[in-house]
Amino acid sequence: MTTTSSSTIAGSGLGLFDSHAHVDGPEFDGDREAVLARARAAGVKRMIVIGAVGDPSSAERSVALAERDPDIWATVATHPHDAAQMTPDWWATHERLARHPRVVAIGETGLDYFYDHSDREAQRVAFARFIALARSVDKPVVCHIRGRDNKPADGSDAHAEARAILAAGGAPALGCVIHCFTGTPDDARAYAELGCYVSFSGIATYKTAQPIRDAVAQVPHDRILVETDCPYLAPIPERGKRNEPAFVVHTARVIAACAGLTYEDLARITVENTHRVFRIPT
Ligand SMILES: [Zn+2]
Ligand SMILES: [Zn+2]
C-alpha cells in the first residue's frame, strides 16, 4: 500500500483531474483497480486515459476503461513515435473510435524530434491528419511536442513547426492541449497566445527543470493543466517508481507555487480548465 502526504489533501475535499494518464497500459494490468482506488483516495477524482501507445489496441483499451467508469474519459490516436508504422487499418480504427461518446479528444499526436523514432515527415503528415480527424468530429487535440533541445544544431524547432501545423489545421478553435510541456518559457507563452492549453507533468518537480517552472508563469491561469503521463515521469518524492494518477498531487503543489496560487486555487482552476478544454460537463 502506497501512502503519501496526498491523504491529507483528500481530507480537504479538493479534487484534482489527471489530464493525461496511460493506465490502459500493461504496466497496470496487475493492479489497475488498486491504482484507481488510490487515485480516488488521494482526491484525484477524474482522469483522461490516452489511448495512443503502439498499435490501436491502446485506443480500444482506453475506450473500454471509459465505458465502465464515469470518471474516466478516453482519447484515441497513434503517438508520433509510431507514426511511420500507421496502416489504413489503424486509421480506420481511429476514425471509428473518434466518434465514440466517451472519447473526448484526439491524441496524443504531434512531433517528437528528441527520439526521432519515426521519420519526421511521417510525424508531420500524421499530426496534420489527426488534426483533420479532430475537426471532422469536432473534438479537441492532445499534442506531444518534443524538440531535440532548446537550440538544436540542425536548426529544427519542433515547437515552432507544431504551432504552424496547429494553426493551419484550425486546432486552437477545437481546443488544444500541449501535454507534458518541455519547451522554453517563450514556447509556453507562444502556445498560450495561439490559444492552447499547457499541461505540466512531474518533470516540473525535478531539480534541473527550472526552465519548465519558469514556463508556468508564462501561461495564463485559465490555460494550465496538470497530469502524470503515468507510468512515466513520477514526480519527486516518488521519482524512480512507476508513476500513477495519485501522484499528480505532488506536481500540482509545485505548479501552484510557480503560478503564484494557493494549492486550493490551483486545484480548482485546473479542474475547471480540464473540463472546459475537453468539454466535459461539471
Ligand atoms: Zn507524450
Ligand atoms: Zn502520454
Question: What would you say about this model in short?
Answer:
With 282 residues, the protein is α/β, with parallel strands linked by helices.
Strands of the widest sheet, in order across it, are: 1-2-3-4-5-6-7-8
Q: Into which percent range does the helicity of residues fall?
A: 40-55%
Number of domains: 1
CATH superfamily: Metal-dependent hydrolases
Average pLDDT across residues? Answer: 94
Under the CATH scheme, which class?
Alpha Beta
Low-confidence stretches at least 5 residues in length (pLDDT < 50)? 1-12
Q: What composes the largest sheet? A: 8 strands, parallel
Radius of gyration: 17 Å
Distance from N terminus to C terminus (CA atoms, Å) equals 31 Å
Structural key phrases:
282 residues, binds zinc ion, 41% helix, TIM Barrel, globular, 11 helices, disordered N terminus, alpha/beta
Characterization of the model:
The chain has 11 helices and 8 strands. The longest helix has 18 residues, at 120-137. It has one domain (6-277): Metal-dependent hydrolases (TIM Barrel, Alpha-Beta Barrel). The protein starts with 5 loop residues before the first helix and ends in a 5-residue tail after the last helix. Residues 1-12 have low confidence and may be disordered. It is an alpha/beta fold and 282 residues long. The chain has helices spanning 6-11, 32-41, 57-68, 88-97, 120-137, 158-169, 171-174, 185-194, 210-216, 248-259, 263-277, and strands at 16-21, 44-51, 72-76, 103-112, 141-146, 176-178, 197-200, 224-226. 51% of the residues are buried. Strands 1-2-3-4-5-6-7-8 form an 8-stranded parallel sheet. The site of one zinc ion (ZN) has 4 residues, from loops.
